[in-house]
């Protein structure tokens, strides 16, 4: 907890999320009262502008700009949408906010709705988060009972209703126009932009879409002032950001820190370093749209621009730490497998390109890589970036590009030496028993699930590589370090 | 797409349709309720949705097949969702999957002959701190090892003898 600065997560874990009075005691709905009774929508947008708050879902677009664009659209009605379709594997901050402090989300959304002039708001929640849906539903009813949500709030003529729409499992629906298609009951395939949602969005009406974490910052900014928020962070990135620190890390979990800290501080000072004292290899940021940042760049400052310069992105805040036993080619394959499955199929480059890249990566990890594969992958990366309509396709090559950029030697070892330096790719490793060390205790033979190890008691054992499934069990159970993987 | 054919009771679906058939943009919500009722999306149900909403059957199937949540075959009593998110992957989720395949003799998407278990690989379940993770129905099991995962399955098997 130390070294953290909690704004979006200010109440998570400190209050009972199912109690509206707990939230009120922490100042809940005070910002809404202030906004509705003392401020004009323009003043609200100005305060958010001063704060420098940018979209926390990944793109980092200035929030005030989106609000202002939706406010300026002349058509009625207008819609406010909260994107809670947290699809990035390895990120769970939105889930934590909705499950831990749903009222702060509702309050932030109402302030946003007032600013843009919307009287209807929708939260699009991932279907995989049933508890979040239950808690949010409960919070909405409580807020309605207390008069914070509904008609003529705080005696003004501002009215707003919020409803929940459960997603149905499609990563691409995190893209705002795909999300709108899904809200309308269609296949979640992105629309051509422009027109942007601020002009023609949900039901072709002006719509504003922000992420959960973005909304969770809003009430704090109103109560403490935009300057207090912008006082934290760097020149380009203001305030705090929540990260989901996971993988091979000693103390994982959600951490909220001011922008401007280095990756090293987060991983070592807050996360307590790498599990089992292994060697750090890379940190994956931004999920399937992001990239792997190697050790040499651990002093990179957390800031939208600085992270982009490494080839990764801030993204929604997933930070998956990897050690020396994680293969970078396999990591790239893992993400391509994900994006190839999740591509909606609208753009040919994304639909077929990711599939072809996945085939190449599969053959590399299977030890059948060919001379020229690395260059072919790079060429395809740029074509897919250029030929895709939405963020999914435009960023899908990032995991491949960054791993080639920083770990080209691992690709080369797979292709030219048929070796996996991390000893993870099963078809490229073999297990054997070191004759010097083996005392013939039969422990490995007894534990082998496929009976691939032979040898009598007190004699050196042998692994039959034809039968061996490379599960690594023998290595794990041998107390004499006699099993070698190479 | 091959779908299961069996006679089903449409009365419950009609209640859902009474509420949503004329609300624009409700197709996904209707399909979600349908799956809650029957455990999957039966063909007859999709035709009934078409009749009542006026949406063409091809379009309904198009929407249903787009989203991973929807199934076209009944699932087992225990739906095992193995998380294949990044953190779980890094911490060995593929070994958990291999262990379950070995224990149950079925692969991703299949159901055991006795109708007890269905295995499904899913994207992030959002419990990355507990990785590797699987969910069986509503229950989450974290910090798994292949052995631990097999043990949980054996326990459930015993409960159903």
Which overall shape of chain B is indicated by the principal axes computed on the Cα atoms?
A: elongated
Strand portion of chain B, in percent? 5-15%
Fraction of residues in H or I helices of chain B: 40-55%
Strand order of the largest sheet of chain A: 6-5-9-7-8
Question: Helix/strand/pairing class of chain B, anyone?
Answer: alpha+beta
- Average pLDDT level of chain B: 92
Low-confidence stretches of chain A: none
The CATH homologous superfamily of the largest domain in chain A is called: NADH-ubiquinone oxidoreductase 51kDa subunit
Short characterization:
Chain A is α/β, with parallel strands linked by helices.
How would you describe what is shown here?
The complex is a heterodimer of chains A (486) and B (161). Chain A folds into four domains: 20-230, 3-Layer(aba) Sandwich (Rossmann fold); 240-284 and 292-311, Ubiquitin-like (UB roll) (Roll), CATH 3.10.20; 328-417, Up-down Bundle (de novo design (two linked rop proteins)); 430-485, 2-Layer Sandwich (Alpha-Beta Plaits), CATH 3.30.70. Chain A is α/β, with parallel strands linked by helices and 486 residues long. Chain A has helices at residues 20-25, 30-38, 41-51, 63-72, 93-100, 102-116, 130-146, 176-183, 212-224, 226-230, 263-270, 304-309, 328-342, 348-365, 373-387, 391-395, 398-416, 443-447, 473-477; strands spanning 79-84, 120-125, 161-166, 207-211, 240-247, 253-258, 280-285, 291-294, 318-323, 431-433, 453-454, 462-463, 483-485. The model of chain A has no long low-confidence stretch (mean pLDDT 95). In chain A, strand 7 and strand 8 (291-294) form a beta hairpin. Chain A is elongated, with a radius of gyration of 26 Å. Chain A has 19 helices and 13 strands. In chain A, the strands form four sheets. Chain A has a five-stranded mixed β-sheet. In chain A, strands 3-2-1-4 form a four-stranded parallel β-sheet, with helices on both faces. A two-stranded antiparallel ribbon of chain A has the order 10-13. The two termini of chain A are 41 Å apart. Helices cover 41% and strands 13% of the residues of chain A. Chain B has helices at 11-20, 27-38, 43-53, 57-66, 86-90, 93-104, 146-159; strands at 78-83, 117-122, 134-136, 139-141. Chain B is α+β, with helices and mostly antiparallel strands and 161 residues long. The A-B interface holds A 86-92, 95, 126-130, 165-171, 182-188, 203, 244, 246-248, 252-253, 284, 287, 318, 320-322, 326, 334-335, 338, 342, 344, 471 and B 24-29, 31-32, 62-63, 66-70, 84-87, 89-91, 95, 122-129, 131, 138.
């Amino acid at each position: 907890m130390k070294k953290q600065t909690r704004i979006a997560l200010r109440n998570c874990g400190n209050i009972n999320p199912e109690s509206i009075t707990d939230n009120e005691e922490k100042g809940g709905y005070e910002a809404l009262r202030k906004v509705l009774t003392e401020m004009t929508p323009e003043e609200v947008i100005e305060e958010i502008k001063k704060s420098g708050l940018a979209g926390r879902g990944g793109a980092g677009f200035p929030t005030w700009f989106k609000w202002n664009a939706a406010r300026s659209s002349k058509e009625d009605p207008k819609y406010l949408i909260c994107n809670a379709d947290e699809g990035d594997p390895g990120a769970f901050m939105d889930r934590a906010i909705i499950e831990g402090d749903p009222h702060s989300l509702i309050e932030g959304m109402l302030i946003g709705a007032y600013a843009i002039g919307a009287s209807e708001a929708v939260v699009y929640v991932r279907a995989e988060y049933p508890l979040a849906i239950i808690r949010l539903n409960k919070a909405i009813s409580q807020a309605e009972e207390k008069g914070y949500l509904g008609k003529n709030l705080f005696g003004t003529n501002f009215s707003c209703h919020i409803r929940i729409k459960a997603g149905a499992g499609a990563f691409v629906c995190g893209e705002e126009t795909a999300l709108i298609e899904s809200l309308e009951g269609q296949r979640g395939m992105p629309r051509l932009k422009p027109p942007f949602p601020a002009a023609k969005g949900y039901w072709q009406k002006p719509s504003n879409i922000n992420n959960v974490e973005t909304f969770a910052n809003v009430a704090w900014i109103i109560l403490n002032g935009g300057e207090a928020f912008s006082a934290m962070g760097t020149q380009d990135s203001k305030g705090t950001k929540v990260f989901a620190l996971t993988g091979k890390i000693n103390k994982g979990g959600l951490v909220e820190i001011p922008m401007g800290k280095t990756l090293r501080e987060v991983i070592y000072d807050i996360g307590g370093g790498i599990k089992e004292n292994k060697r750090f290899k890379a940190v994956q940021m931004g999920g399937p749209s992001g990239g792997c940042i190697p050790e040499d760049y651990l002093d990179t400052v957390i800031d939208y621009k600085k992270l982009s310069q490494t080839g990764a992105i801030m993204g929604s805040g997933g930070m998956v730490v990897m050690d020396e036993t994680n293969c970078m080619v396999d990591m790239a394959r893992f993400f391509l497998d994900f994006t190839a499955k999740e591509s909606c199929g609208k753009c040919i480059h994304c639909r077929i390109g990711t599939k072809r890249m996945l085939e190449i990566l599969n053959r590399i990890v299977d030890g059948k890589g060919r001379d020229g594969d690395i260059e072919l992958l790079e060429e395809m990366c740029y074509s897919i970036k250029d030929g895709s309509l939405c963020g999914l396709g435009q960023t899908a090559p990032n995991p491949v590009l960054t791993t080639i950029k920083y770990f080209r030697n691992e690709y080369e070892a797979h292709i030219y030496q048929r070796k996996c330096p991390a000893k993870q790719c099963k078809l490229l490793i073999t297990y054997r028993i070191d004759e010097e060390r083996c005392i013939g205790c039969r422990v490995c033979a007894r534990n082998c699930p496929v009976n691939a190890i032979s040898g009598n008691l007190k004699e050196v054992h042998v692994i039959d590589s034809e039968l061996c499934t490379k599960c690594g069990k023998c290595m794990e159970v041998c107390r004499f370090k006699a099993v070698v993987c190479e | 797409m091959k779908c299961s054919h069996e006679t089903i009771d449409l009365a419950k679906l009609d209640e859902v349709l009474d509420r949503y058939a004329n609300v624009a943009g409700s197709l996904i919500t209707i399909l979600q309720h349908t799956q809650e009722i029957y455990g999957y999306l039966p063909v007859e149900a999709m035709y009934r949705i078409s009749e009542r909403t006026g949406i063409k059957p091809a379009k309904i199937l198009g929407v249903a097949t787009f989203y991973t949540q929807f199934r076209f075959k009944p699932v087992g009593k225990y739906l095992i969702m193995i998380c294949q998110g990044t953190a779980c992957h890094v911490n060995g989720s593929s070994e958990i999957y291999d262990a379950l395949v070995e224990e149950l003799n079925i692969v991703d998407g299949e159901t055991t002959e006795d109708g007890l278990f269905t295995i499904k690989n899913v994207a992030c379940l959002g419990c990355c701190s507990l990785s590797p993770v699987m969910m069986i129905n509503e229950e989450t099991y974290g910090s798994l090892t292949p052995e631990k995962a097999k043990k949980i399955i054996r326990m459930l098997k015993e409960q159903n003898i």
